[in-house]
Specification:
Layout (H helix, E strand, L loop, with lengths): L5 H16 L12 H40 L1
Length: about 70
């Protein structure tokens, strides 16, 4: 019985920690190679950052309108 190398275990642990922290799906399809895991991890982080930037932009615009609207009423 062959044991996986340390590099395989390391890449698998990094991949599964990223998948756990991001909402990627149900885990029915898994990347097998280290390159595929790196690509999937990059895409997961990019997706979360994209959503965070969009939400921050919307909230910032709403807050700016709220503040400027309250200053014009005075």
């Amino acid at each position: 019985m062959a044991f996986p190398s340390d590099a395989d275990l390391w890449s698998a642990s990094i991949y599964f920690s990223l998948v756990t922290l991001t909402p990627l799906g149900y885990g029915d399809i898994l990347p097998v190679s280290a390159v595929a895991r790196i690509s999937a991890g990059f895409e997961a982080v990019s997706g979360v950052l994209y959503i965070a930037i969009m939400i921050g932009s919307i909230v910032g615009t709403y807050r700016q309108e709220l503040v400027s609207g309250s200053s014009t009423k005075n």
